[in-house]
Amino acid sequence: MYKFNYNLFIVVLLLMACKDIPRDNILDPHNPNSYQSSTILIEAFVNTYNPLSYNQWALQALDSVKEIYGSKILIAEYHRDTDRYSDPYSKLIFEPLYDKYVENSSEKVKGMPDIFVNGTDQRVQGASGVNSVMTRVNTILSKLTIDNTHFTLEPADVKVSGTTLEASCKIARLGNQIANNLLLRLILIQKVNSQELKRVVTDLKKSSAILRLEAGEITTIKFDPIPIDERPNQIIFSLTSSDELTIYQNIKVDL
Q1: Angle 68-130-197 from CA coordinates, rounded to 5°
Q2: ω into residue 22 within 30 of 0, thus cis?
Q3: Which residues, 6 or more positions from 144, have their beta carbon under 8 angstroms from its beta carbon?
Q4: Under 8 Å between Cβ of 106 and 125
Q5: What's the Cα-to-Cα distance from 158 to each of 63, 229, 235, 239, rounded to whole Å?
Q6: How far apart are CA 148 and CA 50, in angstroms?
Q7: Residue 10, CB half-sphere, CA atoms under 13 Å: how many?
Q8: In this structure, how many other beta carbons lie within 10 angstroms of the beta carbon of residue 80?
Q9: Which of 15, 87, 184, 249 is the most exposed place for a label (fewest CB within 10 A)?
Q10: Beta-carbon neighbour count of residue 38 at 10 Å?
Q11: Residue 168 CA to chain centroid, in angstroms?
Q12: Contact at 8 Å (CB) between 78 and 44?
């Protein structure tokens, strides 16, 4: 009988202790002061079948930037047709996103290469050489990569079964503020070759609007099964505002 009461006493003490544990982990969604380092998404709109070297310079510059910042940045290249040059990796599904970015930028002019960093706030258009693009992008990243975010993304279930991709992702709202009007994008990436086509976007899917996330709330977004012709090398989950103009957090999964 004594042994039973002693064990019960220990359990009660443990429960009391757990109740009083301070939530000082900065990654804990239930910590009102929680935050996480931002992972930056660079989206480059290019046409690599233009015989002039502007687009190739831009992609080479992004290769160099990737070497500097590593996992702090993710890169997605959307290929587009122009009036003169068709690009076999272009898809019409990318056009609404590009139109939206251009229309909401200070310079509402289309032209490639066109690089957007974490949405429409930062843009690098055109190229006069590899170093010029690298310098312009690096100036932006040197400020953005030290920023924190109040969102955490965690892949929940990602798998390829034959010609179908299934993917879901957990979103946690950090800090002490409610978040409204969010959207989760799923970007499929293919490495076509090791020269200039390392991060070709092959598909782009969007979730329904996420109307509200309470402080500390965790939700899981599951995408409908996606038919694929070829297994992507990588996917990116990108959490944005519902209008897609601001990007809050990103994470990649290698397949």
Answers
A1: 80
A2: no
A3: 38, 40, 117, 118, 122
A4: no
A5: 27, 17, 9, 17
A6: 38
A7: 6
A8: 21
A9: 15
A10: 21
A11: 14
A12: yes
Residues ≥6 apart with Cβ < 8 Å to 238:
41, 184, 185, 186, 187, 247, 249, 250
Q: What is the pLDDT of residue 236?
A: 98
Q: How many other CB atoms sit within 10 Å of the CB of residue 134?
A: 21
pTM score: 0.88
Place of tokens 């019960």: 8
Measured CA to CA, the distance from residue 171 to residue 155 in angstroms comes to 9
Domains of the chain: 39-144 (3.40.30.10), 149-188+202-254 (2.60.40.10)
And the tokens for 95?
A: 């056009």
Dist CA 180 CA 217 (whole Å): 12
Helix (H) or strand (E) run with residue 186 in it = strand 179-190
Residue 6: per-residue pLDDT: 43
User: How many Å separate Cα 200 from the centre of its chain?
Assistant: 15
Strands 114-117 and 122-125, bridge-based pairing: antiparallel
What the block records as the tokens of 38 is 């931002």
Strand partners, 218: 172
132-188 per-position pLDDT tens digit: 999 999 999 999 999 999 999 999 999 999 999 999 999 999 999 999 999 999 999
Concatenating the DSSP letter of every residue in 23-66 gives ---TT-TTSTT--EE--EEEEEEE-TTSSSSHHHHHHHHHHHHH
3-state secondary structure of 217: coil
**Regions in the chain scoring below 50 on pLDDT:** 1-21
